Amino acid sequence: MTRFRSETAANLLAHALAILAFTFIAMIALGYGRPAHAATVTLLNASYDPTRELYQAVNVAFAKAWKAKTGDDVKVQQSHGGSGSQSRAVIDGLKADVVTLALAYDIDALAERGKALPADWQKRLPNNSTPYTSTIVFLVHKGNPKGIKDWSDIVKPGISVVTPNPKTSGGARWNYLAAWGYALHQNGGNEAKAREFVAALYKNAPVLDSGARGATNTFAQRGIGDVLLAWENEAYLTLKEFPGKFEIVTPSESILAEPPVALVDKVVDAKKTREVAEAYLQFLYTLEAQKIIADNFYRPRDEATAAAAKLPAIKLFTIDAELGGWTKVQKTHFADGGIFDEIYKP
Amino acid sequence: MKAPSRSIAASPTARFALIASALTFIGIFLLLPLVTVFVEALSGGVSKYMAAIVEPDALAALRLTLLIAVISVPLNMVFGVTASWAISKFDFWGKSLLITMIDLPFSVSPVISGLIYVLLFGAQGLLGPYLAEHDIQIVFAVPGIVLATIFVTFPFVARELIPLMQEQGTESEEAARSLGASGWQMFTRVTLPNIKWGLLYGVLLCNARAMGEFGAVSVVSGHIRGLTTTMPLHVEILYNEYNFVAAFAVASLLAFLALITLLLQSVLEWRDAAMTTAAGASL
């Protein structure tokens, strides 16, 4: 009896594992049967959170244009995440041919710490290497029940504000700086007053998500908060995804957000993809791409396309002219021990 | 077996309350979410559900998830048996250290587990320059995901087997040896039959975790759509793209894979029970 039992046991186990392994291998093989295109070039675009829909459309158009021009197939793969964490991933070895991030500082970090591209990368493409701009607006519930009209309304006690964490999210840093700039203008450049204003704003923020899309989901899906501080493009996309539930409030002034793009020299030289990667970034400035950019609610650089897109005119100030540029801003506001750390006490 | 159950559940009210609360608990915390996943997945109709599953990126995520399970589960099975054998049958210097090390993946956060590999194999990491020179990509590619998964699922098999093998002791193996069995014969005919259920259970748990791991894999994946996204990561991406039906469809597929594993376990238990009875009857 012992002998018989022991053999069945070993058999059973072997059977079980064989079945499991066989199922898995069969399913894997099922997918690998597709013929592979030998001549296809692949690029990787590491981008920030809200650009998913934009680059899906851009990549298809670019593949078509590149095929028409050179006869070669190109497939652009996408990786999305918080702008800061995407920059970190490329520094740590993510093989992105191009980066399209939320703000210049995250690409500066790539140049400085990753030695992946020259320090003057922003001069290599037109318009500070930003093929489009955007700004920060408010998204509120339909009918604007709390009567939110401007920045001064969202710092009032009892208003719940949703914005991501400026430590990890690029959009969140633009949100913070838009509020900071507004407060400076209201108080004749008084920094102490601006600090009070921004402190009151973050006192009203119950949660800080790690990325812009996470914050949008917190507001739109989970129904938390009275107002979402959002990228203009993200706000319009939310209106489209949740028809009839929200409306956009344009504040009296906001910040000109310039999300830049750059070639990662270290990667394209290793992968021998410089030519196609450069063409990809230049494609973003073509009329065709500018039209796609406008369709996705970003503000195109091309003036005719921008005029046709009819996004509302907002008084916009720039980080370079008013706040001293990203390097300074990052150091005073967002670095460890900076103003954000001092005012934000969860 | 009947006498104790009678004495414990003397009061029918207590028995009823216990069973009812257990069932309610399971219903609310396990069954309801599971059903919700399937309901949401099918909310757009069967054709939308199928379209979401046969979408190339979803299929790529499915393949990657299974590939990772196929690599990491057997490796951890071999390791688990070896380690628990060594721990339960021998005494050696450093044994308690080995036991602690096996538990390490349980005690550190999965995010840290992922970060360890980035710090080790990343471009700025310890081995980064060497790997770059030889054009070897570990993190933000499949090898990194496999490593992180192996790390996280490391303890499952060993943790199941160590108490079992310690309890069984070494008498049976010693008897087998004294009757002239070779090492391999002893293992397949004496040890393996004794630990088979523990081993199978450990393998199933290991497999479930390997397919479902999110945190560690998220850190080393690089989130390249259709290339380094496993199913749990793909679910997150779809959810973030407002593609709720597709997100739940892929989630339901993941749940379905887990249900298959459970079903397999039940069938095996049932077959074993049937065989044992048959063997007993034939004697």
Summarize this entry quickly.
The complex is a heterodimer of chains A (346) and B (283). With 346 residues, chain A is α/β, with parallel strands linked by helices.
Query: Would you tell me the structural class of the helices and strands of chain A?
Result: alpha/beta
Q: What is the helix tally of chain A?
A: 17
Distance between the termini of chain B: 24 Å
Instruction: Report the oligomer.
Output: heterodimer
Low-confidence stretches of chain A: 1-6, 33-38
Q: What's the main sheet of chain A like? A: 4 strands, mixed
What order do the strands of the largest sheet of chain A run in, or round the barrel if closed?
A: 2-1-3-10
Element-level helix/strand string of chain A: HEHEHEHHEEHEHHHEHEEEHHHEHEHHH
**Can you tell me the CATH architecture of the largest domain in chain A?**
3-Layer(aba) Sandwich
Compute the separation of the termini of chain A in Å: 68 Å
Structural class per helix/strand content of chain B?
A: mainly alpha
Question: What are the salient characteristics of this protein?
Answer:
heterodimer; A: alpha/beta; D-Maltodextrin-Binding Protein, domain 2; 2 domains; four-stranded mixed sheet; B: mainly alpha
Can you tell me about this structure?
- Chain A has 346 residues and is α/β, with parallel strands linked by helices.
- Helices cover 51% and strands 14% of the residues of chain A.
- Chain A has helices at residues 2-32, 52-70, 83-91, 104-113, 126-129, 151-154, 170-186, 191-203, 212-220, 232-241, 265-271, 274-283, 287-295, 303-309, 319-323, 326-334, 339-343, and strands spanning 41-47, 74-80, 98-100, 132-133, 136-141, 161-162, 227-231, 246-249, 253-255, 261-263, 299-300, 315-317.
- In chain A, the strands form 4 sheets. Chain A has a 4-stranded mixed beta sheet with strand order 2-1-3-10.
- In chain A, helix 2 links the parallel strand 1 and strand 2 (74-80).
- The termini of chain A are far apart.
- By secondary structure, chain B is mostly helical.
- Chain B has helices at residues 2-8, 12-41, 46-53, 56-89, 95-107, 110-121, 128-133, 142-153, 155-168, 171-178, 183-212, 215-221, 231-240, 244-282.
- In chain B, helix 2 crosses helix 14.
- The radius of gyration of chain B is 23 Å and the shape is globular.
- The two termini of chain B are 24 Å apart.
- The chains are: A alpha/beta (346), B mainly alpha (283).
- Chains A and B meet through helix 1, strand 2 and helix 9 of A and helix 4, helix 11, helix 13 and helix 14 of B.
